[in-house]
Write a structure and sequence with these properties.
The complex is a heterodimer of chains A (226) and B (296).
Chain A lengths: L1 E9 L5 E10 L4 E5 L6 H8 L7 E6 L2 E2 L8 H5 L2 E4 L11 H10 L6 H15 L14 H13 L5 E5 L7 H14 L4 E6 L2 H7 L2 E6 L2 E6 L7
Parallel strand pairs in A: 3-8, 3-9, 6-7, 7-8
Antiparallel strand pairs in A: 1-2, 1-4, 4-5, 9-10
Helix pairs in contact in A: 3-4, 3-5, 4-5, 5-6
Chain B lengths: L1 H9 L1 H36 L4 E5 L5 H12 L4 E7 L1 H11 L4 H6 L8 E6 L5 H9 L4 E6 L1 H42 L2 H10 L3 H33 L1 H7 L6 E5 L2 E6 L3 H28 L3
Antiparallel strand pairs in B: 1-3, 1-4, 2-3, 5-6
Helix pairs in contact in B: 1-2, 2-7, 2-9, 2-11, 7-11, 9-11
The chains are: A alpha/beta (226), B alpha+beta (296).
């Protein structure tokens, strides 16, 4: 489903974010991307979203070569991916319902009633069904991250990219967030970037370990130690 | 509409600045268009005054005069020709001097020359017609107000050029200011735009709320500027009435359509409103499009 073939990403000032990285992720897999800051985790997520292009190498998502310069299915690609950020990226002037609904509204194919139904389902999964009218300013960090997760899982997005979603949360809240990932892991392909070893080890999922832009280990049922 | 009101509430100063710039530009555009049409109307009116008068020798045979008249009429350069016979000239003289019997007693019909009053299709044909008439031996005098007409033509041409230059400057200035203001406003939503883009929103979907707001701002600005311009126009109407005394109507022609500019005519005013609104909406759309392009 997602294939990286000898991907290298150099930034204009010469620093190498990824160095000849190759891996493939099957549909429905839960993969942790781990490594210290600057290892290249966020670069991989940005490459999958086609926010940036690799310097060399190819990336395939659903058999589409997204590194092709004439790639014309950017909307289709992004409409298949839900993204969760460390800093949540919640729109301040929209309430919880509206923030989650955004993910469906941009697809321009759902009626209001369908959106309402799907958003309610997603909010139930993340445990925010009673807060749909609440504005972001009234929510805790953990609740904001739940809104972001609801936004990424709503509808039929098959891939979830989570860029250090527990990075700004206290350990207790981080575990609550991970429980939500447990609930949704069967339905989606999840790529979870983190450097939290406890979380990685408790899940016993595949782990891709990055160091200074290179893929140093690919553990099928991984344990990760810093 | 709800989104538009919310957007104004969230960035009142940027919205007010956009509105005021649009209002000012559309207000000037209204008067620019009105003045252009008005001067075109005046030019058209002046062109309907006799432009060349040819005075024949008093005893000229009418058939010879008609021959010249017919030749001119068939040239394709003449709009109309009016023949004034000696009798008619005398009647005009009598009417003009009805309060002065002494002057009337001193003259008789025979001393008045018959004449042709000629109206050219275009002022540029006038010198040629005048030259033709001067070559006729039976014509004593050709009155041709060449200087006045040339000055009027020059004035109208300058007015057109100045108007177009000013209009161009207005367009550039308004677009630049609106783009700058829209940039401020859109920068406040930079993160939301980036998020929408990552969620797979199309460029049009992202631009739509900004374009909607631009449309409503331009529409309100054009309605407001039109209302203020109308108030000013009606305030000065009595002054224009006395200044243009004797001129029953001024007409402006556009693409084979004729609009009455004076007396104030609602069809013409609505045409200007339509033009200024379209201009305002196009400007506002263009500025928003350019400003959003930075983030898409």
């Amino acid at each position: 489903m997602i294939v990286f073939e000898n991907v290298t990403k150099k930034f204009p000032l010469g620093n190498i974010a990824l160095d000849d990285v190759s891996f493939s992720i099957e549909e429905g897999e839960f993969v942790f991307l781990v490594g210290p800051s600057g290892a290249g985790k966020t670069t991989i997520i940005k490459l999958i979203l086609r926010e940036i292009l690799p310097t060399t190498g190819s990336i395939f998502v659903d058999e589409m070569d997204i590194t092709d310069k004439n790639f014309s299915k950017l909307l289709a690609l992004r409409r298949n991916i839900g993204v969760i950020f460390q800093d949540f990226k919640i729109v301040d002037d929209k309430n919880v319902f509206e923030n989650v609904a955004l993910s469906l509204q941009v697809l321009e194919k759902y009626s209001y009633l369908e959106i309402k139904e799907e958003v309610k389902k997603a909010l139930k999964i993340v445990g925010l069904e009673d807060k749909e009218k609440v504005f972001p300013i009234q929510l805790s960090a953990g609740e904001l991250q739940r809104v972001a997760i609801a936004r990424s899982i709503v509808g039929k997005r098959k891939i979830i990219l989570a860029d250090e979603p527990t990075g700004n949360l206290d350990p207790k809240t981080a575990w609550e967030i991970m429980k939500i990932f447990k609930k949704i892991e069967k339905e989606k392909t999840i790529i979870f970037a983190t450097h939290n070893a406890d979380i990685v080890n408790s899940f016993q999922k595949r782990v891709l370990i990055l160091k200074e832009g290179r893929l140093v280990k690919d553990l099928r049922k991984g344990k990760y130690e810093f | 509409m709800r989104d538009f009101l919310i957007s104004i509430k969230r960035a009142p100063f940027q919205s007010a600045a956009s509105f005021l710039v649009l209002f000012f530009s559309l207000f000037l555009t209204f008067f620019l268009l009105f003045s252009l049409a008005f001067f075109e109307g005046i030019l058209g009116y002046l062109e309907t005054r006799p432009q060349i008068i040819a005075y024949f020798q008093p005893k000229t045979n009418e058939n010879e005069i008609f021959k010249i008249r017919d030749e001119l009429a068939s040239s394709g350069k003449v709009l109309s020709i009016k023949y004034i016979s000696q009798k008619e000239a005398f009647e005009i003289y009598k009417k003009m001097n009805k309060d002065n019997p002494l002057l009337l007693e001193m003259v008789s019909q025979e001393i008045f020359p018959p004449s042709l009053e000629i109206y050219a299709k275009k002022p540029m044909f006038l010198p040629e017609i005048a030259e033709y008439l001067k070559r006729q031996t039976i014509i004593d005098e050709v009155q041709f107000q060449k200087d006045i007409l040339e000055r009027l033509l020059t004035l109208t041409s300058i007015l057109r050029k100045v108007s177009f230059s000013f209009f161009g400057y207005l367009f550039l200035m308004t677009t630049t200011v609106l783009v700058a203001i829209a940039h401020f406003k859109i920068a406040l939503k930079k993160e939301e735009i980036e998020l929408l883009s990552l969620l797979g929103a199309s460029s049009f979907y992202i631009r739509k709320p900004f374009l909607k707001e631009a449309f409503f701002l331009a529409l309100f600005a054009s309605v407001f500027s039109f209302s203020v311009a109308l108030l000013i126009l009606f305030y000065f109407q009595p002054f224009l009435n006395s200044y243009l005394q004797g001129i029953t109507s001024l007409t402006f022609n556009l693409f084979n359509l004729s609009f009455n500019v004076w007396p104030i005519n609602w069809v013409f005013l609505l045409l200007i409103f339509f033009l200024t609104s379209s201009f305002g909406i196009a400007l506002s759309f263009l500025a928003t499009f350019l400003a959003t392009s930075k983030y898409l």
